[in-house]
Amino acid sequence: MTTVETAPIAPLAWQPPAGAVWSGRWVDGASAMPVHDPEDGTLLGHVTDASPAEVDQAVTGVAAAVAAAVGSGAGWAAWQRREALEAASRLVVRHHEVLAELISREGCKTVREARSEVSRAAETLRLSAQQTGLLTGETLPFSDTARGTGRLGWYTREPVGVVAAITPFNDPLNLVAHKLGPALAGGNGVVLKPAESTPLTALAFVQILLDAGVPADYVAVVPGTGATAGRALVSHPLVDLVSFTGGFRTGNEVARAAGAKKTLMELGGNNAVLVLDDADREAAAQSVAAGAFGVAGQNCLSVQRVFVAAPIADRFVQDVVDATEVLRVGSKSDPRTDIGPLIGEREARRVQEWVAEACDGGAELRTGGRREGAFHWPTVLTNVPARARVMTEEIFGPVLVIERFDTLDEAVARANDTRFGLQAGVFTAGLESALSVAERLRVGAVMINDSSDFRIDAMPFGGPKQSGVGREGVRYAVEAMTEPKIIAVRLGG
Ligand code: NAD
Questions:
Q1: How far apart are CA 342 and CA 208, in angstroms?
Q2: pTM for this one?
Q3: CA–CA separation, 376 vs 296, rounded Å?
Q4: Best residue for ligand 1 mutational test, from 250, 299, 420 (most atoms within 8 Å of Cβ)
Q5: DSSP character string of 423-454
Q6: Residue 24 predicted with pLDDT over 90
Q7: 332 by DSSP, 3-state: which?
Q8: Which ligand 1 atom sits closest to the C-alpha of 168?
Q9: Exposure string (b/e) for 321-358, b if CB count within 10 Å is 16 or more?
Q10: What value does the mean pLDDT take over residues 377-383?
Q11: Is the CB of 201 under 6 A from ligand 1?
């Protein structure tokens, strides 16, 4: 297509309450901020722009509820948490289309992509519900040491207390579910600060949790900016654990503001895929194009760098270009669209600038390179200078770099030559080379005969280096959001 066709504007089918939630009820904060559709700038609604004082009220309320539950010994029991999370999962399924519309309208996903995210969020809640039955401890080996004689003891897993959840714009529902589901399964109270561009989905999700029976004083949501609401939340002294997903630079700021608190961080990636000369070339090209350009590349698992064996490189680049040029760029609401907008025109201009910088340095533009408003066409570059930002940074846009390699050692070294380490892919028919490459890549997960862009919600998720701190994935998040507590008995006699 030559220009982006925007769809006729329909009002949102469901308007979430405009305010925030704290102290168990919806309240309007003193200030409000607008939420726009990034595709055409349509005003979708207003939400509270929470002030530090309002964040303090939210955290204090949740902390009081959690402390009262611990103090009285009659908290929100595990079976009640399981039932509420199961009910929430069913409600997400029931409100599937409304949630998909919210995700797509305020964010950058096509309707198809948004629907798939809603299904995943229901799954994340179902997995969270399952975890409540697995919050077990074990007995302790007192009799294995002379000093332990006459003692008996065990540990249980206890909630950490108050979890602060900070989420990004690109999966506005499922990444919220990945924090609130495990936090609640573990028996914690949780205060959420969603991304400024996508708060409506988060507010709808919190309403679903409340409708499902999550006690109103265990969950709060404070929409607002990162600099004000986010900062006030992570630095609050009554917050026990910060669970953050976003960019590395923000992660650093969050760590500084949080101080000596437990933190979990899911950060960025500029993921590599290796295509060996014995790979199914056409299947690899299809998978790489899908993995690079889904959600217009705004995905932490996007394929950004491909290293392909020299003997098949020319044909592989052509296959990827062919697979890219059939993708339809267009309105998110058109079911035929493959690639929607970036989250804003500023981001699209940044991507365009990084592509221009690579081309000025000698890179070849094989397809794409065009921008219109917030839309950036899927772009394939080859012969990219090693220090161009499209190679070294996380581009978070629809840009793919393909480079050729002569030896496997060289390919592994170049794939590892990055500050990030989220996921990687390797395409080959050879078991030995697949496993050898997998062993040598310094990443959180290696997908064999698949692109880096694959995840199930039960996987331990995250990576080394600047891709994060700790692991998410429901079971692993529940583990991180609970801690052992020992009870030991000194037997008489
Ligand atoms: P971002 O870092 O700009 O913002 C993330 C969140 O942090 C937002 O809610 C923002 O308001 C908040 N924030 C900003 N400054 C803050 C501060 N000083 N204190 C507290 N909170 C603050 O990220 P984004 O642009 O929304 O999302 C894109 C980034 O997220 C990419 O880097 C992507 O790789 C990463 N991401 C990672 C994963 C993962 O699981 N590893 C998943 C999705 C996205």
A1: 28
A2: 0.95
A3: 8
A4: 250
A5: EEEEE-S-HHHHHHHHHH--SSEEEETS-S--
A6: no
A7: coil
A8: 26
A9: bebbeebebbbbbbeebbbbbbbbbebbebbbebbeeb
A10: 98
A11: no
